[in-house]
């Protein structure tokens, strides 16, 4: 199908150009999205009549898009996802997910404007191209991690090794319970003294038998015949 482009389309042409595309691409995308007109005789005349207005409108949209592009260009966006120890995601990050995180940052974007060849299926940093306007494209970085701690490590140039459990990545403000327990019980005598108000007598923990007790428990020796003879 032959069409007239109403805006710049990547790999097709600029505003006002007449190009040929597949019928399905034109009917399912370009025409419904008002990105093109059928290149009929009437539409060609209509376009030439409205060319100045269309070009002025495109310039205004491009200026607004550039303002939005300045807000996100070069920025890093964090997406927290569950993943296995092999760093593979349970699911994926797609264009819609990226669009949502950009919208949350204050820039209105549609998933169709995300230039993502295939979904992201692992942890790490990924460069993604955004078409804020057909003539305004910027790059952003997507930081996919299992937690904010891991995202910070990746943002600083570190990496998460395969097989590394998420629980082994601790924040700087996390309490080391093992150290606390060790410090609590490293001086048991002082702990007991604090609880009872008395010093611990180590001898009380030893079972002893006095000489008197031992002798009182001895059986009298039986006098033998040999003893009588002596």
Catalogue the unreliable spans: 170-175, 198-218
Largest sheet: 4 strands, mixed
Mean pLDDT: 80
Biggest sheet: strands side by side, in what order? 4-9-8-6
**Got a strand count?**
9
Q: Summarize the helix and strand pattern as letters.
A: EEHEHEEHEEEEHHHHH
> What is the CATH architecture term of the largest domain?
Roll
CATH homologous superfamily heading of the largest domain? Ribosomal protein L9, C-terminal domain
Q: How helix-rich are the residues, as a percent range?
A: 25-40%
**Rg, alpha carbons:** 40 Å
Structural class: alpha+beta
CATH top level class name of the largest domain:
Alpha Beta
Any idea what the shape is? elongated
Tell me the number of structural domains.
2
Summarize the structure in words.
The model is unreliable at 170-175 and 198-218 (pLDDT under 50). This protein has 2 domains: 2-72, Ribosomal protein L9, N-terminal domain (Ribosomal Protein L9, domain 1); 76-168, Ribosomal Protein L9, domain 2, CATH 3.10.430.100. The N and C termini lie far apart (139 Å). By secondary structure, it is α+β, with helices and mostly antiparallel strands. 13% of the residues are buried. The strands form 3 sheets. The protein has a 4-stranded mixed beta sheet with strand order 4-9-8-6. The chain is 38% helix and 20% strand.
């Amino acid at each position: 199908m032959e069409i007239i482009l109403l805006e710049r389309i990547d790999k097709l042409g600029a505003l006002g150009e007449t190009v040929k595309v597949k019928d399905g691409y034109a009917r399912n995308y370009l025409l419904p999205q008002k990105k093109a007109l059928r290149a009929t005789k009437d539409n060609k005349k209509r376009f030439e009549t409205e060319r100045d207005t269309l070009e002025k409108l495109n310039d205004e949209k491009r200026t607004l898009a550039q303002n939005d592009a300045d807000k996100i260009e070069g920025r890093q966006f964090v997406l927290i996802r569950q993943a296995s120890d092999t760093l593979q995601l349970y699911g994926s990050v797609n264009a819609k997910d990226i669009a949502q995180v950009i919208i949350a940052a204050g820039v209105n974007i549609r998933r169709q404007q995300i230039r993502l060849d295939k979904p992201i299926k692992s942890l790490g940093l990924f460069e993604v191209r955004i078409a804020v306007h057909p003539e305004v494209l910027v790059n952003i970085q997507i930081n996919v991690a299992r937690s904010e701690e891991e995202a910070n490590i990746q943002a600083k140039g570190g990496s998460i090794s395969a097989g590394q459990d998420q629980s082994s990545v601790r924040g700087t403000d996390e309490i080391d319970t093992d150290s606390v327990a060790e410090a609590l019980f490293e001086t048991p005598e002082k702990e007991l003294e604090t609880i009872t108000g008395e010093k611990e007598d180590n001898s009380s923990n030893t079972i002893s038998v006095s000489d008197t007790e031992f002798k009182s428990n001895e059986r009298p020796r039986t006098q033998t015949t040999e003893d009588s003879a002596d």
